[in-house]
Amino acid sequence: MNYKRAILCGLLLWVLIFFEVCILMFGFKLSQGSLYYLIHFLLLAILTLVCAFIYFNGKKVKSGFVQGLLVGFVFLFVGVILDIVLTVPLFVHNYNFFLDVYLWINYLEILILVGVVSSLK
């Protein structure tokens, strides 16, 4: 695994998700309800696929579902660190944020999609 590349792609994914959530919540004024989550999970899938394709495209990196899961864990690690450092203190103000079931669904979606992209390479 190319750790530098995985960390940078994880950072890109976090930034894209941050802007996506801001646009949904503040631009379209969607509250966290069924429509918000439907749109968010669809956009999250697209953003995750883009970042996974960036990581696995054109470089000599190992592929396979397990390798994709490892890369997905790096993406999640980067995202969790940035959430701890930025999202919770500046926006959410409550570390119970990490107990939200929808956040864990996000994590699972990211892991599965990165694994699938890696296995298709």
Instruction: Give the tally of β-strands.
Output: 0
* Poorly predicted residue ranges: none
Question: In which range does the helix fraction lie?
Answer: over 70%
Return the structural class: mainly alpha
The main pleated sheet reads as:
none
Rg, nearest Å = 14 Å
Beta-strand proportion: under 5%
Count of individual helical segments: 4
Shape: globular
Ends apart, CA distance between termini: 14 Å
Descriptive account of the structure:
This protein is mostly helical and 121 residues long. The protein has one domain (3-120). It contains 4 helices and no strands. The chain has helices spanning 3-27, 34-56, 65-92, 101-120. The longest helix is centred in the middle third of the chain and has 28 residues, at 65-92. The model has no long low-confidence stretch (mean pLDDT 93).
Structural features:
single chain, 4 helices, 0% strand, globular, mainly alpha, 121 residues
Question: How are the SSEs placed, and which strands pair?
Answer:
Layout: H1 3-27, H2 34-56, H3 65-92, H4 101-120
Helix pairs in contact: 1-2, 1-3, 2-4, 3-4
Give a quick rundown of the structure:
With 121 residues, the chain is mostly helical. Helix content is 79%, strand content 0%.
